[in-house]
Amino acid sequence: MNQTIEAIMSRRSIRCYKPHPIPSDIISTIIEAGNQAPSRGRMEEGQILFRPWRFVVVDDPEFRLKLVQTTLPIWKRATEGMKKVQPDMYENIMRQYEEMEEPKDMVYHCAPVILFVIGPADFAVSCALSCENIMVAATSLGLGSFYVGFGAMVTGNAEVVEALELVEGERIYGPIVLGYPDEESSALASIRPTKKEPEIKWI
């Protein structure tokens, strides 16, 4: 199979990672793949500029813990809402949470790298394309990835906002966690979404 198609077809959301660090050159390659995504242009200082995004790589354990502490309460409130409508999934998730070692991280899944893609709020499509490139590139290099919606909910922490250098009009896309999949973990196999066949109309 074509290597690009193989990476696209084998990409999946990984929810459990080994603690092994990712070499910086591999992270740089993944970011460059994201930087090569298509985007619409924007006018800035009389020039039409493309690539509206920027990237923040988090691999510092202390800052990573700060992110976990910021987002975990939000995750807990959202998960509690599943208790009545999806009781089986709720019980499965909470079982994983109880079995997890401290610090419990159900948002970033203990991944060694958290990659923030940050861009203008009105460039959502362009930044989403960059995220997709990042995840496919990670798969092709033997890494797992996961687009973590809860991970963007850090704007209530002023210290985190300052570190990410977020300004008015910007938003977080992702972030995307990266790491080597922990294939031996039961948590990895516990969530398998059913994907329907593509709906296609030929004209």
Task: Characterise the protein shown here.
- This protein is an alpha+beta fold.
- It has a single domain (3-76, 103-189), classed as 3-Layer(aba) Sandwich (NADH Oxidase), CATH 3.40.109.10.
- Helices cover 42% and strands 16% of the residues.
- The protein contains 8 helices and 6 strands; from the N terminus they run ααβββαααβαβαβα.
- A hairpin with a 2-residue loop joins strand 1 and strand 2 (47-49).
- Helix 1 (3-10) crosses helix 6.
- It is globular and about 55 Å long.
List keywords for this structure.
NADH Oxidase, 203 residues, alpha+beta
CATH class type: Alpha Beta
Task: Indicate the CATH architecture.
Answer: 3-Layer(aba) Sandwich
Encode the helix/strand succession as letters. Answer: HHEEEHHHEHEHEH
Query: How large is the radius of gyration?
Result: 18 Å
The total of helices stands at: 8
Number of domains: 1
State the low-pLDDT regions, or none.
Answer: none
The major sheet is characterized as: 4 strands, antiparallel
Stated plainly, the CATH topology is called NADH Oxidase
Residues in helix, %: 40-55%
